[in-house]
């Protein structure tokens, strides 16, 4: 049963039911989404290669276009992200796709058996519309999800592709190892990494997550007394 529905312009409909989202055919084709060129060849480095995770988007803030959040391209016009990244007038001004090293104009790596590989130029977009979940609760992080409509269509390349969204009937990912990617802080009091990174993680179900989260909150309250 659908609990919360967001109506996105141009007939893109996402239905939020836990981890399942349903949508019409405006979402990227499942014959195309989730594909990355890096899967086609072997490489001798565990680092993220230049065309891995081509759906990761950088969110740009203020007049210096700083990268403070990321999202995922879900079709050629929309990026899925956290509602925390677009709330409270944070001055989100744009989205960048296809980047690897956020400090360089041209990105090149040497992770493949073919030698040096350089990416195509990044694509940048202004913001057409920001649609946070109407029931987003900052205090509890409930319904922490949002959609950004880009100012124009993204052009797919080997370095810019959409990710697949789970739909009704998708296989259970409970036993799968998950990969997370983006530009984050490497440690306490550290700066944001210059190049795209990845970490491996395990899926935690909602019931287990709630139990751990509630326990942490209670312990923090006790320690603060």
What does this structure look like?
The protein has 225 residues and is mostly beta strands. It has one helix at 206-223; strands at 4-8, 12-17, 20-22, 56-61, 66-73, 78-81, 92-97, 108-112, 115-118, 123-132, 146-150, 177-182, 197-202. The strands form four sheets. The chain has a six-stranded antiparallel barrel. It starts with a strand and ends with a helix. 24% of the residues are buried.
Q: Indicate the radius of gyration in whole angstroms.
A: 18 Å
- What gap, in angstroms, lies between the N and C termini? 42 Å
Q: Tell the overall outline.
A: globular
| Major sheet size, sense and barrel closure | 6 strands, antiparallel, barrel
Tally the helices. Answer: 1
**Largest beta sheet: strand ordering:** 4-5-6-11-10-7
Percent range of helical residues: under 10%
Low-pLDDT segments, ≥5 res: 1-25, 217-225
Order of helices and strands: EEEEEEEEEEEEEH
User: Which structural class should the secondary elements be placed in?
Assistant: mainly beta
- What portion of the residues fall into strands of 2 or more residues? 25-35%
Number of strands: 13
Please state the average pLDDT score: 76
Keywords:
single chain; 225 residues; mainly beta; 6-stranded antiparallel β-barrel; 3-stranded antiparallel beta sheet; 1 helix; 33% strand; globular; disordered C terminus
Write the layout of secondary structure elements.
Blueprint: E1 4-8, E2 12-17, E3 20-22, E4 56-61, E5 66-73, E6 78-81, E7 92-97, E8 108-112, E9 115-118, E10 123-132, E11 146-150, E12 177-182, E13 197-202, H1 206-223
Antiparallel strand pairs: 1-2, 2-3, 4-5, 4-7, 5-6, 6-11, 7-10, 8-9, 10-11, 12-13
């Amino acid at each position: 049963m659908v609990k919360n529905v967001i109506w996105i312009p141009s007939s893109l409909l996402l239905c939020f039911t836990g981890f399942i989202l349903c949508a019409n055919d405006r979402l990227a084709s499942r014959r195309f989404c989730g594909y990355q060129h890096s899967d086609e060849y072997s490489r001798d480095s565990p680092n993220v290669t230049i065309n891995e995770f081509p759906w990761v988007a950088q969110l740009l803030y203020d007049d210096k276009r700083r990268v403070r959040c990321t999202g995922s391209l879900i079709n050629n016009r929309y990026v899925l992200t956290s509602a925390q990244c677009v709330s409270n007038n944070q001055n989100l001004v744009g989205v960048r796709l296809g980047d690897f090293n956020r400090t360089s104009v041209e990105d090149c790596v040497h992770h493949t058996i073919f030698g040096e590989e350089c990416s195509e130029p990044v694509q940048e977009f202004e913001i057409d519309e920001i649609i946070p979940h109407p029931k987003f609760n900052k205090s509890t992080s409930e319904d922490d999800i949002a959609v950004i409509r880009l100012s124009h269509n993204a052009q797919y390349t080997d370095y810019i592709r959409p990710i697949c969204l789970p739909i009704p009937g998708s296989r259970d990912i409970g036993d799968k190892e998950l990969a997370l990617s983006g530009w984050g802080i490497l440690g306490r009091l550290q700066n944001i990494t210059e190049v795209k990174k990845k970490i491996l993680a395990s899926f935690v179900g909602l019931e287990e997550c709630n139990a751990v989260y509630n326990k942490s909150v209670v312990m923090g309250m006790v320690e603060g007394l």
